[in-house]
């Protein structure tokens, strides 16, 4: 009985801890970076700096205005950084009013860096066919299209946010304020092109399956078992040794 009570208390405490942690994550205070550079498909921005305050709870968000985005296209966003276990990143795709973006956007003329950082976070999204809204397909991140008005669809601009936060303090945290990362946006393919490729792959698999079942398999079976209808006559030879 005491074991059951202890187990029940443990589960209740664990559930409350998980709920509290999730609430803290959602309610984490945040601050935006000053700049809002543009990011187009096929473009890579290297050594992007994100300055963190000396507080563990504050989340820093860097916004990128996505340009040359097309409808009915699959995209992938890569985020890579040179490993610090005390920093966590998340990708968030949203839309902002064009007027607001025009006021906040500033060109970032920082030169490209020389470091090659391995991919860490990826997010796959698909632009819808009728309007420039996005669907989350997979990876690390989330999509929030916000309020949508079909009549004023052109008045909104897609914006990709890189959200970083500390999950632990390194040694001498005052020396670790700036963390750098690379970000890249690529086109995976168009929806109609991917659909045709998938269709041709399915047709190829079906044709190969019919060929194997109808021709290859019977030939292999007959070869292994021997053809009983056309057997060769038996010939015996006697060999005499003198």
TrEMBL record:
Keywords (A to Z) from UniProt: Membrane, Signal, Transmembrane, Transmembrane helix
Keyword Transmembrane helix: yes
Lineage: superkingdom: Eukaryota
Organism this protein belongs to: Trypanosoma brucei equiperdum
Keyword Signal annotated: yes
Listed transmembrane segments: 198-225
Signal peptide: 1-20
The name this protein goes by in its record: Uncharacterized protein
